[in-house]
Design brief:
Blueprint: H1 2-31, H2 38-45, H3 52-62, H4 68-80, H5 94-129, H6 134-148, H7 151-165, H8 177-207, H9 210-217, H10 222-259, H11 265-274, H12 278-306, H13 308-316
Helix pairs in contact: 1-12, 2-3, 5-6, 5-8, 5-10, 6-8, 7-8, 8-10, 10-11, 10-12, 11-12, 12-13
Length: 317
Amino acid sequence: MYESTWIFCLKRIFTLPFVLLGVSILTFVFIRFVPVEPAEVILRLARVAPTTEAIEALREELGTDKPFILQYLLWVKGVVKLDFGTSFVSKLPVAQELLAKLPATIELAITAFVLILALSIPLGIISALYKHSIIDKIIRFFTVMSVSLPTFWLGFILLYLFSLKFGIFPTNGKGTLAHLVLPAFTLALPTIGLFVQFIRSAIIEELQQPYVKYAQLRGLKNSDILIRHVWRNAAIPLTTLLGMTLGNLLGGAVIVEQVFSWPGLGRYLIESIINRDYPVVQCYVLMIACIYVLANLGTDVLHRLLDPHLMMKDRRD
């Protein structure tokens, strides 16, 4: 089992450079479809008249006057050496800027992830056990609403109710635990609805399996059947969503951070896109892609360890 799992991991890790290469090419190409010249944006930010001579001089300084292929090859050469370039705006190393803002985004994403697990698991189980009851209908209505609401609209509604009207939580920024509540809940709510629906369907399907009837005939308690057998089997396909969820939380934090002025990667990315700060956007996308791949790898490994069918296949291999 262990040898096969290790081979599986090595194969997935081997594909990582090719995935990142494809992501880097697409990012490098698409970001340059924007017609606005970065040199012009930077000059306007510095309140300097964007004359033709000034733009050409700054393009030469930034390196954007070189042929497209040469720009890409020079950037890849730097990435291989862990040099992700220098920000056009701040003139600081991009890696240094992103690493400084990464902890705030990770804090927000992990808090949202904890909320997702803490709320979706009990709600999903209750909804499945009381299928078609009033409780089930209320929970299902909540899940449909949570999945349907746009994130930015939900954030503004929560700000109005709990910050401006009742004054319970701060309106923006980062500092205390109270600053974290509204952004984390806004980020987590759509995924909570998705997880509740998934858990409900998985448990209902497991409760209809023959082994449940057999366990009841043996005299096992319903709580033991639910915890030791039904939930364990229902949780196996749930693991496939965990990797995507973590990546989605990091990516979805862009909107939430902007609404709540949370000083993380998402807000920095929006500012960099507006300022046409190519090196920052390229490094951000590459980093998120790497997190996605590694998170999905961890999820696949966990799925193989939990799924008895895959474990038996590993033993045969």
